Amino acid sequence: MKITVLGAGAIGKAYAAYLSSRGHLVTIWSPSGRALGRLSSGGVLSATGICEGEFQVTVASDAAAALAGADLLVVAVPANGHATVISAIAPHLKNGQTVIISAELSFSAVLMAQAIKARGLDVPVIAWATTVVTAKSSGADSVAVSLLRKRLDVASIPAGHVTAAAELCADVFGVAFDEKPSVMATALSNLNPPAHMAIALCNFTRMEKGEDWSSYGGITEGAGKLMEALDEERLALAASFGLSVRSVFDHYVHSFGVERGSVGQMAQTVAAARPHVKGPATLDTRFVTEDVPFGLYPLVELGRLAGVKMPLHESGVELFSALYGRNFRAENDILPQLRLEEMSRAQLLDLVG
Fold it and tell me: Where is the Opine dehydrogenase domain positioned along the sequence (predicted)?
């Protein structure tokens, strides 16, 4: 299959390497113009970890070249780049293509679907709750791929396409995908924004000072209690929309095979097994700059529409805005385009369904 990866950061390069290792013809495009080292002149992409090797991938010069001839498009940029990528690729999409948003935050899949509808095209949009891999760039043309997730939640627009979407993703990526009824379900299944809020807030000075610390080790009993309380808000919000999603307790048991206990206890068990997973050593971390405006803030807005109070999520947005001297609500460039603040609950459900 001809696959284009839209994004040349760690996750984008990891997808390019992993998909190449599975025999797909891969093109990669850097929306930001990020230099790709020897890749740009016909060199190879070097990968270590779960897909060790050197892989030949094509580098596209622009959005038009990136989409030309592609069967599948994988958006692999942080959420603060989704709107820009969607705007760039929409004019070049063609019937027969499929778009994957990896990973969706702030209903960016809906924004993509609206752009497709405006052009009168039949192009399915697939939304994942998280990424298939975790990775870290080791150079302009190299990447270390540390984890391949075995199962992911998947939804689609139109919603009736979800079975085909799950089958396509499983065939292409070689892992299991659990069907969800709508992108609302995948949005509310994403544990990362509230979890990262608790970790970053309780370890803020460690990040600010650039200290070397364990990400899971930083989830002390107190940080774990905050994570549990945030999770109660998320679960209540999901229930208000008639959705049942996995709890943070279930996540630890399911993902890491640990004995059920408090989040703090389970996190320390994971930390002992994975001491190499480090917490952010800078304030310029997606735990905050991506997950606050595009993860926490949308949940606050959903709570407003559903009549569900989200005091801890809302406090997180305000606290991090104060700590950074930024307005993280204003940094979300997706919700204003969707006009979520003007919607009723019924209009929102119609939009995401």
Answer: 181-323
And the tokens for 282? Answer: 């800078």
To the nearest whole number, what is the mean pLDDT of the chain? Answer: 95
Q: Percent of the chain having pLDDT more than 70?
A: 100
Q: Are 277 and 212 in contact (CB under 8 A)?
A: no
Number of H helices, E strands in the chain: 17, 12
- For residue 146, the model assigns a pLDDT of 87
Tell me how long the chain is.
353
Q: Looking at the chain, which residues constitute the CATH 1.10.1040.10 domain(s)?
A: 191-347
CB neighbour burial string for 201-231, b if at least 16 within 10 angstroms, e if fewer: bbbbebbeeeeeebbbbbbeeebbebbbebb
Q: Is the confidence at residue 353, as pLDDT, over 70? A: no
pLDDT tens, 48-70? 999 999 999 999 999 999 999 99
pTM of the model: 0.92
Q: Are 74 and 5 in contact (CB under 8 A)?
A: yes
CATH 3.40.50.720, the chain: domain bounds: 2-188
| CATH topology for the 191-347 domain | N-(1-d-carboxylethyl)-l-norvaline Dehydrogenase; domain 2 (1.10.1040)
